[in-house]
Amino acid sequence: MPLLNALRTEKFWEAINVNRLEEVRQALRDLMRYLDKEKQVSVETTFEDTLDHGSIREHDILPTYSRLQSYKERVASYVREHKDHLVIQKLKSNKPITETDLQTLEAILFDGKTVGTKQEYIENYGEKPLGEFIRSIVGLDTAAAQTAFAEFIQAGNLRADQMTFINSIITFLTKNGMIDKKMLFEPPFTDVHDQGLFGVFDDAGVVKVIHLIDRINENASVSVYGQRSAAAT
């Protein structure tokens, strides 16, 4: 058999590669049954790997990582992966953040290495408060959103359409974290009534709902410029 004869030569093994070894394996596997297991001699091999320490080089993988993702992708990915961070948890659970909390977030997100710089954030998101931005990524905890409206629901003796409207707000906040008040007059909130909030609640109810939303938004409203955003005041 030509292959068996070739296997016995040094020339064959000098040009060996993975694909060729696979061809050999497939060609010989049907012959293995004919081996005399009792007379077969065990072959032991000892291989010792050598490591050329002098040629080892360390490489910074962060620049490569940065090139693979846009700034928006990097920062969103980082926030989701670190959603259990104390300050991020405060945002998700509707706890108000402070200037100190903001500085903690900036130290992480604007260090120029982990995600990017403050200038990159401003170039991509303008004056959007950092807390609002993070809340928009992680959303608002469902229980926290329900708690924010609990007193209003319990005291209001709400009709079915009013409860549906409030539940729509809670669902939206859970997914998006924040809500612009003008959206209360747009879909999906006009699905309940074509006039949105004004079509479902009287003037007193409208004021209460807007006040509750303002408080939720304000809890995440410290801006990257160290001030409360205008939308939260």
Descriptors:
233 residues; mainly alpha; 3 domains; 0% strand
Q: Could you walk me through the main structural features you see in this protein, from its secondary elements to its overall organization?
A:
This protein is 55% helix and 0% strand. The chain has three domains: 2-34, no CATH class; 62-139, no CATH class; 142-222, no CATH class. It is mainly α and 233 residues long. The protein has helices at residues 2-7, 10-14, 18-28, 62-68, 71-81, 86-92, 99-109, 118-125, 130-138, 142-156, 160-176, 197-200, 203-218. Helix 10 (142-156) runs antiparallel to helix 11 and helix 10 (142-156) runs antiparallel to helix 13.
Structure described in brief:
This protein has helices at 2-7, 10-14, 18-28, 62-68, 71-81, 86-92, 99-109, 118-125, 130-138, 142-156, 160-176, 197-200, 203-218. The chain is mostly helical.
Low-confidence stretches: 61-65
> How many strand units?
0
Number of helices: 13
Proportion of strand residues: under 5%
Shape: elongated
End-to-end span in angstroms? 89 Å
Order of helical and strand elements? HHHHHHHHHHHHH
Based on secondary structure, the structural category is: mainly alpha
User: How many domains is the backbone divided into?
Assistant: 3
Roughly what is the average pLDDT, rounded to an integer?
84
